[in-house]
Design a protein that fits this description.
10 strands, 3-stranded mixed β-sheet, 15 helices, alpha/beta, elongated, about 450 residues, 2 domains
Length: about 450
């Protein structure tokens, strides 16, 4: 009987999960095969993030995300469901809702998640997914993350979910291999990626899809390869699709699990002569129909793009931060002298300026700047990412586009001012008392 169990730990010396975890992984895969049939394990395509398996147009918008989710639902045997995606382009703190987003376990990446089934206006059963907009910047990784969310939907659709959350998340990872998603999810089990932010910049990110970890996922992928009877050429092809670490775990597991007949026996997979005929690629990769009213040739609005500061607060309230310009003027006068003097004192032969004199001059200029700045007022936008200089004539910020609705004396008071404004604009909790009835004539 399944219960809460710790996440599997890897033995780093032999590149494999521990023996009891190996038994658990194979046992749960066998349990899934017994309940759902062996045909999917041996006949479903082992998906790769290539145009061969994902031929749909990707333009970075909501229709593209829907097509990706719909194709993966088809691969999971859930093609009769209609994929619905809800993309969140702001952080959890600002968007105010989470579309049933689960809490992360063991620090895994949850940028796409299954959020339930529903019925649309036409009465069709829909499969809903939540998507973090930032994930749309890296479509290659998005395929693996969405594949795992579809595996969670598969388990819910077939009544396979177990009550314990940790165990269920582990079983979702096992299910990705049963459905043929194992190359995708093993590749993304732990991977360093670089995410573009929509400009010329990019930033590194640690991708951790699922909770089992790369050792366990490599082990399951090797069991799947043996169960399907792949030859060495097939093994090499899979290994080339994986990062170096996952490829090493996969190869070592292939050695330990050989021969393939023993793997099939442990998983309950019959001999190959009892397998059904393989499906044609045409039936495996159908055309994904457009949604009602969706123009396939229309330009999609890209999601998850960092639009920068310009216009980011258009139509939103911001405040004018007015305070003395003392500190700004002091820095403006003192820092160039301090830095330039230090370079001259250290870098030029024949110029002998003692450092104490440079520091004294810099301090004097800083004091002068404080006095001058005290007579000046510095007016700035309260948006932390903006800080544009404002004049008395400005009613909106010229950079971020926010509407100037008030004045504060320090940037740290911005959130309190926003809350006060929200309460002021909120409707009264108690409706006004009705007028007293007039006496009858």
């Amino acid at each position: 009987m399944l219960g809460a169990s710790p996440l599997p730990k890897a033995n780093e010396e032999i590149l494999l999960p521990q023996d009891d975890d190996q038994a658990w992984l194979l046992g749960e895969l066998a349990r899934l095969i017994k309940r759902q049939g062996f045909e999917t394990l041996v006949n479903a395509p082992m998906l790769e993030p290539t145009p061969m398996f994902f031929p749909d147009r990707w333009a970075g918008g909501e229709p593209s995300m829907r097509r990706l989710a719909q194709r993966l639902l088809h691969y999971a045997g859930l093609g009769e469901l209609t994929a619905v995606v809800h993309i969140f382009e702001e952080s959890d703190e600002r968007r105010g809702e989470d579309e049933n987003k689960p809490q992360a376990i063991a620090g895994e990446t949850i940028d796409v998640w299954f959020s339930g089934f529903a019925r649309d206006a036409q009465g069709r059963r829909t499969c809903r997914f939540g998507v973090e907009g930032v994930a749309m910047r890296d479509p290659a990784s998005l395929v693996a993350i969405t594949a795992r969310a579809v595996a969670a939907a598969y388990r819910a659709h077939h009544g396979l979910k177990v009550p314990d959350r940790v165990t269920e998340e582990r079983l979702v990872d096992v299910t990705t291999h049963y459905l043929g998603f194992g190359i995708l999810t093993t590749d993304a089990a732990r991977k360093h990626v670089t995410i573009a932010d929509g400009s010329f910049r990019s930033k590194p990110k640690l991708l951790r899809v699922g909770v089992l970890g790369p050792h366990a996922m490599g082990f399951l992928l090797a069991a799947h390869a043996h169960a399907r009877g792949l030859d060495r050429k097939g093994h090499r092809h899979i290994a080339r699709r994986l990062p170096d670490n996952q490829a090493a775990f996969f190869r070592r597991a292939l050695e330990v699990l050989a021969p393939e007949e023993s793997v099939r026996a442990r998983l309950g997979v019959p001999d190959m002569d009892e397998w059904p005929d393989p499906m044609s690629m045409r039936s495996l990769i159908p055309e994904i129909a457009a949604e009602d009213g969706e123009d396939e040739n229309a330009v999609e609005e890209r999601k998850g793009v960092d639009k920068g500061v310009v216009g980011m607060n258009a139509g939103k309230p911001v405040f004018r931060v007015e305070r003395r310009a003392s500190l700004r003027v002091a820095k403006l006068l003192a820092l160039p002298v301090l830095m330039g003097g230090g370079m001259v004192a250290r870098g030029f032969q024949g110029v002998d300026i003692p450092m104490w004199a440079i520091m004294a001059a810099s301090a004097g200029l800083a004091l002068l700047g404080l006095l001058i700045g005290w007579m000046l007022t510095d007016s700035r936008c309260s948006e932390p990412k903006c800080g544009a200089e404002l004049t008395a004539e400005h009613t909106s910020c010229p950079r971020c586009g926010g509407d100037i609705v008030g004045v504060i004396d320090h940037p740290k008071k911005r959130l309190a001012a926003e809350e006060a404004l929200r309460l002021e604009q909120a409707p009264s909790a108690e409706p006004p008392a009705p007028d007293a009835p007039k006496p009858a004539a």
